Amino acid sequence: MKSLKGTAYLAPIGFEKQLSDELQGIVERYERLYITDRKPVQSFWAQNIWLEPFVANFESISQAASLLKDIQRNWALYPYAEHRRAALIQEKLPYISGKPVKFPINIPEAPMGSFVLLDKTTLIASARCSSAFPNGEILFEEVREGPPSRAYLKLWEALVLAGKMPSAGSRCLEIGSSPGGWTWVLANLGATVLSIDRSELDPEVAKMPGVCFTKGNAFGMTPEKVGPVDWIFSDVACYPEKLLEWISLWLESGYCKNFICTLKFQGEGGYAIANDFANIPGSRVLHLGHNKHELTWIRTLT
Fold first, then answer.
1. For the segment 161-181, what is each residue's pLDDT rounded down to a tens digit?
2. In 120-226, beta strands by DSSP E
3. Residue 264 a catalytic site member
4. The one catalytic residue among 225, 257, 264, 292
């Protein structure tokens, strides 16, 4: 084994350009996997970051599997080359369930390594990665009846990664709530939800216990008007600059400590605003598996 003395970054499908544009020192690329000669850095568009990548040569499938098992138990394959051989190596490793999981779940404590075959006798792997989930993906068992849209999956993922979530007695403000996918999640957690949008909520969601819907301008919901809340959620379609202006009012007021907001971008570029969100103390900005051309800002404080 030989350390690569750098970092590897896995791009979400379809967002390779966004990831490559924010990285420096790229020395190799294996489709969605970028190898740099630099130490790990903050990356908004990485699905998973391989923090200590190394390269190893092997002669047989069993030897490759033993090499990885000697380091730790859990490994996830990133398919790139020699797909059949790579799959056979994965089969010889301890079993990792690929079944969708039920929400809510905790982030696994056991580390999840990643590996990729470059050819029949060469692999790159990292025991330490930024995500405890295989290739940085959380696959949920979907709910077919109840939520009016699939947006609930995005909030499920954000809440899991936040490491905390609303519960009975929590007071939540949600802007841009229609048709109600996020409201459905919050109400099912037992929270009280102040739900705001110019369009109506799904009637069944609007009738859920704890939901109070107001039709109107989301950005008119100021701290002075609403008062203290435990959480603020936003999936509203707007320029991130407008969202930041509104969020700043809440940060300055001290009326809310926990935020999960989608940053939606118009076309290519304009991503620099994400740095302003990331620089807010206690914040993370990341591309969720259920994000499209957008990023998610998560800020939680105890």
1. 999 999 999 999 999 999 999
2. 122-126, 171-175, 192-197, 211-215
3. yes
4. 264
